[in-house]
Amino acid sequence: QVLLLACAEDLECVPGFQQKVFYIEQPFEFTEDQPVLNLEFDDCKGNNKLNFEVSNPDFKVERDGSLVALKNISEAGRALFVHARSEHAEDMAEILIVGANEKPGALKEIFKIEGNLGIPRQKRAILATPILIPENQRPPFPRSVGKVISSEGTEGAKFRLSGKGVDQDPKGIFRINEISGDVSVTRALDREAIANYELEVEVTDISGKTIDGPVRLDISVIDQNDNRPMFKEGPYVGHVMEGSPTGTTVMRMTAFDADDSSTDNALLRYNILKQTPTKPSPNMFYIDPEKGDIVTVVSPVLLDRETMETPKYELVIEAKDMGGLDVGLTGTATATILIDDKNDHPPEFTKKEFQATVKEGVTGVIVNLTVGDRDDPATGAWRAVYTIINGNPGQSFEIHTNPQTNEGMLSVVKPLDYEISAFHTLLIKVENEDPLIPDIAYGPSSTATVQITVEDVNEGPVFHPNPMTVTKQENIPVGSVVLTVNATDPDTLQHQTIRYSVYKDPAGWLEINPTNGTIGTTAILDRESPYVQNNIYTALFLAIDSGNPPATGTGTLHITLEDVNDNVPSLYPTLAKVCDDAKDLRVVVLGASDKDLHPNTDPFKFELSKQSGPEKLWRITKLNNTHAQVILLQNLKKANYNIPISVTDSGKPPLTNTTELKLQVCSCKKSKMDCSATDALHISMTLILLSLFSLFCKSFP
């Protein structure tokens, strides 16, 4: 049996370091050949051929376990690892170098267990001490990394290892000598892929039955500095206002290092490698080496956007691990810093006075006012806003900003009249969309005068009023006077004459005297004409002055036509059908209409003309002002009958119209009306009557 170190009442000796983790405070300097601490290793069999290896080549461990520096060292990193191996055991110890205010806890984080790291304080037959393996080891493989010990001496007993990395994916990384308990690794490990392996060890008999365990075996991968810092969040763009105080924070640069964050392998320091451009100072910015904050270091005067070669700076930022030491790995990224504009320059007119010429009666842009502004064209600190502050009482002018050129576009929005004023003087000011900063004000150059000259043009005569309206009765005699128009020439200084002519007369009813403007009729005015809309007839006339070239004005005449009773009423429908055996002898409802207006229309009077024959066959009954009903007094034989009906309107004098209602008497069987023989029957009867009449005439020569 193996004798175990007594950590509990029934344990006597445990092979390996008797203390696994040591904490030492970082001195000002490790002195050459001066002991740092003592390490106690015991393989429980005399420590034959004991050898120590230190992860830092500037240190060594003496035979008695003393850790000493081989030279004076001011910086040794944050951790040292000591590997001890004898004929019968090997183990790893960790020495953590901490500051005065740091709490010792690094190894607890690695193993994620509470309490002292060492031998678990419980009785057990299997001793499986944690194993530490550096990542990225070089061949040959497999490589022995530790050993599991059992206090049981059962004959034929074997060790069995299981868990992730053995018989679970990723499989085959670790294996154990089933007889000796030696644990070996079969290939290089990557801490960034898997940092810890939790395996189980058990002892089985010759048949494979578990006789002890399982016991947990923790394997931790020791980090190496094999990952460069990386900037993952780009692009990196920062903004700072021009004139900002020295020390203004612009942005923060943050890099990521996949190595162990508890070691110097991931301890990053930042530095500016290059600044472009280098003017006005090659050192415009500073980066906090630990936080990565970029701040301004030049005076506000130098941070002037308008005097810079370009408002954009590019900084090449380096992140270096190992706390920035020369041996550290590096990664770089570009930070773009834009100097933002503030409104510290007012817009100024390029000249104090502008000239413009415009013809009277014309609207639109007459002049573009130009200004200069040194601020950023993409901001409200550059965009101009123009205002007319004097000389525009009639609101004849407006000014707007051209968004592309920033010029002020002065426009005439109400036509100017040369005869009223031939000259105009405007006072215009310009400001920015954004307010100026407090210590800057608008000066005299932010106002300008515009002198506008109005040119005289030959304007067309103007009708008064326009449109012109008159009311006339329709059907007035041809040659009647409708109206005398009046047009005047706005060009009062030119003393021109005016002639008149017809421009548009849709019905051809009118004429105009070219000299005095009297309008007369050349045809009867008809209110019912399709050229009359809503009782109004519209015509256009021209007034032409004697200028060179002559100018023309257009006048509109609306004639409201009063109605007279000049249309007879009409009757509808003019055809009706009835069955020869009909029980309902109400044949048809008749309606009357009249193109005239009330009171020359309804109520209408309906009458039957005189009926021939010895007895009456039908009668008419009035239903309302516009409708009447024709009723048969008896059933008639199948034939066509013409019933003369007269309808009279209510005009003064009234007008009467007589219309024949054609009545077809048809045979009706099984809900079907047959009127096909009525015409033939009616014709046959007519021929018989004509023949009889002819014979009668021959008898009386």
TrEMBL record:
Q: Pfam families, alphabetically?
A: Cadherin (PF00028), Cadherin_pro (PF08758)
The Cadherin domain sits at: 158-231, 232-349, 350-463, 464-571, 570-681
The annotated topology with respect to the bilayer is: Lipid-anchor; GPI-anchor
What does the record list as GO biological process?
adherens junction organization; calcium-dependent cell-cell adhesion via plasma membrane cell adhesion molecules; cell migration; cell morphogenesis; cell-cell adhesion mediated by cadherin; cell-cell junction assembly; homophilic cell adhesion via plasma membrane adhesion molecules
User: Quick check: keyword Coiled coil in the entry?
Assistant: no
Q: Where in the cell is it found?
A: Cell membrane; Cytoplasm
Task: Output this protein's name.
Answer: Cadherin-13
Instruction: Please tell me the species this chain comes from.
Output: Ibidorhyncha struthersii
Top-level taxonomy:
Eukaryota, Metazoa, Chordata, Craniata, Vertebrata
